[in-house]
Amino acid sequence: MGKFLEYCRHKDVDLTAKAYFIDALGAMALGLFASLLIGTIFQTLGDQLGIKAFVTIASYAKQATGAAIGIAIASTLRCKGLLLYSTIAVGIAGNTLGGPLGAYIAVLVAVELGKMVYKETPVDILVTPTVVIVSGVLVAIALGPGIDKIMTALGTFIENATEMRPFIMGVIVSVVIGMVLTLPISSAAICLAIGLGGLAGGAATAGCCAQMIGFAVMSFKENRWAGLVAQGLGTSMLQMPNIVRHPQIWIPPTLAAAITGPLSTCVFHLENIPIGSGMGTCGLVGPIGIFTAMPDGGTMMWVGLVLVCFVIPAVLSWLFSKIMRKTGWIKAGYLNIEC
C-alpha cells in the first residue's frame, strides 16, 4: 500500500476529499457555466427578443456541456497534453448517459487512471488516450444510467415534497442550499445534478440570494462598495474564512433564508430551472432563471423576484446583524474580506 501511495504522489494523483469534492466539483460547475448556463441565458434572450442567432448560439453552447465538464475537471486536477484533451470524449459520454454527475464521476476515474500511464511508455500518444477514453466511457456506460435515475428521483422527491409541504420544505431547501452556496462546494452543481427545479428551485434561489445579498449588505460597513459587488454579484464564499473564525456571523443571512424560502413557495410561488437554482444573484443568474422558468409569471412574479431575491434578504440580514452588533455578538472586523 505504501508503494502504491508513493506512486500516486509521483504521478500527481491527489487522493483527498478536497481534490474530489471541492476542487473537482467546483470545476464541474465552471464547465457548466461555460456551456449550459450561457446557453440557457442566450436561449431565454433569443426566445424573448426573437433573435434567431441567439437561439443558434444557445444550441451549440448546450451541446458542449459534457466536453466543458470534462476539460474543466481535468485542468483543475492538473492534467496536461493528451491526458487533458482525452477527457473531452469522456465528459461527453458521461453527460449523455448520466447527466453532469455522470460526467463528473467518469472523468474523475479516467483522469486518475490516465495519470498512472501518462508518459510511461514510448507510445504514449496511443496509450494515454486509450486508457482515458476507454476507462471513462466504460464507467459512463456502467454507472451513468443508474446515476441519472437516482438523481432524477431525488430531485423529483424534493420537488413533490415542496409542492405538498411548501412552508416547511421552503424553509429547509432555502436554508440548506443557501448554506451550501457559501461553503467551498458548488451549490449550482448539486442543484443541477439532482435537477432541482420548480417550487423547490425557487426556494433554493431564495436561500442563495439571502446568503449573497445578506452578507453583502451586513458587511457594507467593513467592505464598502467593492465588498457589496464582490459578494452580491460574485459569491458569499468570500466570507468563509470569517465564518470559520466567527461562526455567529452566519446567523443573519441564514435566518433571512429561513424567511424568504417559504415566502417564495407559499406567497409568490416562484419557480426556477435547475441551472439557476443554486446560483443566487451571482451574475444575476438566479433571477434570470426564475424569469426563464416563469416567462408568463406576470406582475406577481416580478414583485416576488425583486422582494425575495433582493429587498427582503437585504433588510432582514441588516436588521439581524444590527441587533447582533449591538449585543456584541458581531464586532468590528469580523466581516472584513479581501476584495
Describe what this molecule looks like in 3D.
The protein is mostly helical. It has two domains: 2-152, no CATH class; 165-326, no CATH class. 80% of the residues lie in helices and 0% in strands. The chain contains 15 helices and no strands. The protein is globular. The model has no long low-confidence stretch (mean pLDDT 92).
Tell me the number of strands. Answer: 0
Task: Classify the helix fraction into a percent range.
Answer: over 70%
- Rg to the nearest angstrom? 21 Å
The average pLDDT is: 92
Which structural class do the helices and strands define? mainly alpha
Please report the number of helical segments. Answer: 15
The largest sheet is: none
Percentage of residues in strands: under 5%
User: Alpha-carbon distance between the termini?
Assistant: 44 Å
In terms of topology, how is this protein built?
Blueprint lengths: L1 H9 L6 H33 L2 H12 L1 H12 L4 H37 L6 H41 L1 H17 L4 H7 L4 H21 L1 H15 L5 H6 L5 H18 L5 H4 L7 H9 L4 H29 L13
Q: Which descriptors apply to this entry?
A:
15 helices; mainly alpha; 0% strand; 339 residues
Summarize the entry for a quick read:
By secondary structure, this protein is mainly alpha-helical.
